[in-house]
Amino acid sequence: MRERTIASHFVRAALRGAQRHGVDTAALLRQLGIQPALLDEPRARIDPAQFARLMQQLWQCLDDEYLGFGRVRSARGTFAMMCHAIIHCRSLDKALQRGALFYGLFEQAPAIRLEREGDWVRLSVDDSALWDPDHFMLESLLVIWHRLGSWLIGQRIRLEEATFTHAEPAHAAEYDLLFPCPRRFGAGRSSLLFHVRYLDMPLLQDERTLKQFLQHSPADLLARPDGGDSLTSRIRRQLGRDCTTWPDLDTVARHLHMSPQTLRRHLREEGSSFQELKDHLRRDLAIYHLGRDDLAIQDIAEQLGFSEPSAFHRAFKKWTGLTPGMYRAQQA
After folding, report:
1. Cys staple from 5: which of 45, 55, 293, 296, with CB 3.0 to 4.6 Å?
2. What are the C-alpha distances in Å from 77 to residues 25, 89, 165?
3. Which PROSITE patterns does this one have (predicted)?
């Protein structure tokens, strides 16, 4: 579901490299229809399309695909050239190895490594060459390589584990959208683990599809949340977008072929609950609609299943720290 929203943490983190290089990021945000004051609220969130435009604007104004986080600049077009270098490889293994070799040609670039561990393969990123206080570029590189690989073979690569050298951050709950798998912090390296069978799969893309892919990537790869086949994503798909006809927990559990008790237990293990999932989905749909002018706030409240606009106002402020009116004004 593309209406999944982006936490303001990632916007603040993405801007750190540009700020380090003296860019007027407040003016940049206003050009994109994002009021800088919105980022002062830790609970605020933005539309994925806005985040994608922000990434593209940062790449353009810095002429740096490392967004100011690297010791050296990675000129715009480097990622595209790497994609052209790998698109004719016969297998994902060859493509990833060639991509890693391509970036290895650049001095002080973050090193990409692919190592087999029995039935598994680990893709790791060495971020020691980065100035990356929020680990934003490290997270971005892991996400981009995972989603690029998935696109190349025409199916999502199921992640078995994601590891990070840094300690668990305050925004760790957001990682479910970036790395939908077990996560380990304070590890020896930052990496993604997946089954070795994917490496032998042939590439299903070609020059024609690559041209279309590069019109929006890698910005779109970062902006598109990926819940994969996690339980929360499967529940969100079951709920759908019409909040007034949402099934109850028993019905959702039946569709997922498990008992209500088992569903509750799995959600508790993931640190969530059925009610929290519904609240987050309502929040994301509200932000999606408030970013557009086609619905009045009262109509949005009704569409989200609130009996009174005042109840919607209270809930939205609890979710984001802003009232719906304030949020819409910030987008204007």
Report:
1. 45
2. 23, 20, 29
3. HTH_ARAC_FAMILY_2
Contacts of 306 (CB under 8 A, 6+ apart): 312, 315
**Mind giving me the DSSP string for 13-57?**
HHHHHHHHTT--HHHHHHHTT--GGGGGSTT-EE-HHHHHHHHHH
Please say whether the beta carbons of 141 and 110 come within 8 A.
Answer: yes
Cβ distance 192 to 142 under 8 Å? Answer: yes
Q: Strand 183-184 and strand 159-163: pairing?
A: parallel
**How far, in Å, CA of 39 to CA of 6, rounded?**
12
Lowest mean pLDDT among 76-80, 124-128, 267-271, 303-307: 267-271
| C-alpha to C-alpha distance for 6 and 48, rounded to whole angstroms | 6
* Identity at 142, one-letter amino acid code: L
The conformational region for residue 22 under phi > 0 = left, psi -120 to 50 = alpha, else beta, is left
Q: Model confidence over 77-87: pLDDT tens digits?
A: 999 999 999 99
pTM attached to this predicted model: 0.76
Contact 162, 181 (CB under 8 A): yes
Supply the pLDDT for residue 174.
83
Three-class DSSP category at 293? coil
Span 135-153, pLDDT tens digits: 999 999 999 999 999 999 9
Q: What is the pLDDT of residue 2?
A: 45
Chain position carrying tokens 């959600």: 267
- Length of the chain in residues, anyone? 332
Residues 6+ apart with CB under 8 A from 16: 68, 69, 133, 134, 136
Tally of CB atoms within 10 A around 47 = 23
List for the chain the helix, strand, coil content (%; round to 5): 55, 10, 35
pLDDT above 90 for 133: yes
Q: How far, in Å, CA of 310 to CA of 236, rounded? A: 25
